[in-house]
Specification:
The chain has ten helices and twelve strands. It is α+β, with helices and mostly antiparallel strands and 261 residues long.
C-alpha cells in the first residue's frame, strides 16, 4: 500500500533533470554509484532524468540534453566545494544542495572550523601542518597541548579519504604523507572517543529550517572510514539515536546553529 501511495504522488517538476555524477575527484567511484541510484529512483518515479558523467564536455552535454535542473550526485572537490555550483549558476541552471559560499566553506575543514570557533561552537583542539613542513610529533603535540592519539586528515576531502588515527610516534610521518597526498593542508586534531552522531537539516524558503532526527553511526572498530561508509552491512545507523533526551536536544541545537552560521 505504501508503495502505491509513493507512485501516485504528483511530480514536483516536468522539467528535464540532469543527474551530475562521477567527476575527477578521489571519490569518483562513489559518486558514480550515488548518481546511478539517484537516476534509477527518479526514472522509477516518472521524472524525465538523464545521467551525466561530469567531464570537460559538461557544458555541451547540458545543452545537448536540454537539462533544466541539476541533481548533484558529485562527491569531493569539484562537486561539493562550490565549483560546480558556480558553473551552474553562470548557466542559469538550478541545482540541489547548498549554494556556492556554503559549499566552499563546508568542504574546507580548516575554514569551517575557524568559522565555527569564532561564534563559540565547540570544535576539537588542533592545528594545521603545511605540505613540506618538517615537524616532529613530540614538538607539535607539546606546542598544541595535544596527547596521543590524534587524528590527521586532509583539509578538503570527503569520505574519510586520507584520514588516520595516529596512536604512536612511529605512525606520524606516514599519516602526514597520506593527508598531504590529497591537500597542501593537513589537519592535526585531538581524537575524541565517544558516540558519532549526525543531524541533517533542510532549508525552507518560507519556514524555519527542518531539523531531522539525530542518527547514531555505529561503525565496526569504532572508525567510520571509507569501507564503513560504503560497504553494505558494515555500519549500523540508529534512528533516532539512543541517547538521553537532553543530549539529543543539545546536538540538534548545535547542528542548527552550525547550519545558520
Amino acid at each position: 500500500m505504501s508503495k502505491l501511495r509513493l507512485n501516485t504522488r504528483p511530480l514536483l517538476t516536468r522539467a528535464r533533470i540532469g543527474v551530475l555524477m562521477g567527476g575527477q575527484s578521489a571519490e569518483r567511484d562513489v559518486s558514480l554509484r550515488t548518481g546511478a541510484a539517484v537516476h534509477r529512483s527518479l526514472v522509477r518515479r516518472g521524472y524525465d532524468a538523464v545521467a551525466i558523467d561530469v567531464g570537460p564536455t559538461l557544458s555541451q552535454d547540458l545543452r545537448k540534453q536540454k537539462i533544466a535542473l541539476a541533481f548533484l550526485a558529485l562527491h569531493g572537490p569539484g562537486g561539493e566545494d562550490g565549483a560546480i555550483q558556480g558553473f551552474l549558476e553562470t548557466l542559469g541552471i538550478p541545482y540541489t544542495g547548498s549554494g556556492i559560499q556554503a559549499s566552499a566553506v563546508g568542504m574546507h575543514k580548516v575554514t569551517t572550523k575557524t568559522l565555527l570557533a569564532s561564534v563559540g561552537i565547540p570544535v576539537p583542539a588542533g592545528t594545521v601542518v603545511k605540505r613540506g613542513r618538517k615537524v616532529a610529533s613530540a614538538v607539535l603535540l607539546r606546542a598544541e597541548k595535544l596527547r596521543w592519539p590524534v587524528v590527521v586528515k586532509p583539509a578538503s576531502q570527503g569520505s574519510t579519504i586520507g584520514v588516520s588515527i595516529v596512536r604512536k610516534p612511529e605512525q606520524w610521518r606516514a599519516a602526514l604523507a597520506l593527508a598531504h597526498r590529497y591537500d597542501t593542508d593537513a589537519m592535526v586534531e585531538a581524537y575524541i572517543p565517544g558516540h558519532e552522531v549526525t543531524v541533517s537539516i533542510i532549508g525552507r524558503p518560507k519556514a524555519s529550517p527542518l531539523v531531522l532526527p539525530a542518527v547514531e553511526i555505529v561503525a565496526p572498530g569504532g572508525f567510520y572510514d571509507f569501507a564503513a561508509k560504503y560497504e553494505k552491512g558494515k555500519t549500523q545507523y540508529l534512528c533516532p539515536a539512543p541517547l538521553p533526551a537532553a543530549v539529543t536536544k543539545e546536538i540538534r541545537a548545535l547542528a542548527l546553529r552550525t547550519y545558520e552560521v
